């Protein structure tokens, strides 16, 4: 269950990162509020997951989910373009997240 909590925490990291972009530097109140709520939920869920998962495992998985998810969301929502080299590193990050999960 704590892995599920950690995954949801990572997904909320994507929510706050993307909503921060939509907030246009915190000038749009509705998106600013979504950003803050997303941050709080993400941190609370991460804190909950670390009650039983080692921080050295939970934190890199959390940031990795956030990083990969934000890259994908940026491509879908904002038309971000990635070079082939960047894609290679995103794939390596995803493989690393899966490797941490499988070996812990």
General description of the model:
- The protein has 104 residues and is mainly alpha-helical.
- It has one domain.
- Helix content is 83%, strand content 0%.
- The chain has helices at residues 2-22, 29-49, 55-78, 84-103.
- Helix 3 (55-78) runs antiparallel to helix 4.
- 21% of the residues are buried.
- The mean pLDDT is 95.
Summarize, please.
GO terms for molecular function: transmembrane transporter activity. This protein is mainly α and 104 residues long.
Task: State the main characteristics.
membrane, mainly alpha, transmembrane transporter activity, EmrE-like, transmembrane helix, single chain
Alpha-carbon Rg, integer:
14 Å
Judged by helices, strands and strand pairing, the structural class is mainly alpha
Percent range for β-strand residues: under 5%
What can be said about the biggest beta sheet? none
Write the layout of secondary structure elements.
Elements: H1 2-22, H2 29-49, H3 55-78, H4 84-103
Helix pairs in contact: 1-2, 1-3, 3-4
Subcellular location: Cell membrane
Keywords: Cell membrane, Membrane, Transmembrane, Transmembrane helix, Transport
Organism: Lentilactobacillus hilgardii (strain ATCC 8290 / DSM 20176 / CCUG 30140 / JCM 1155 / KCTC 3500 / NBRC 15886 / NCIMB 8040 / NRRL B-1843 / 9)
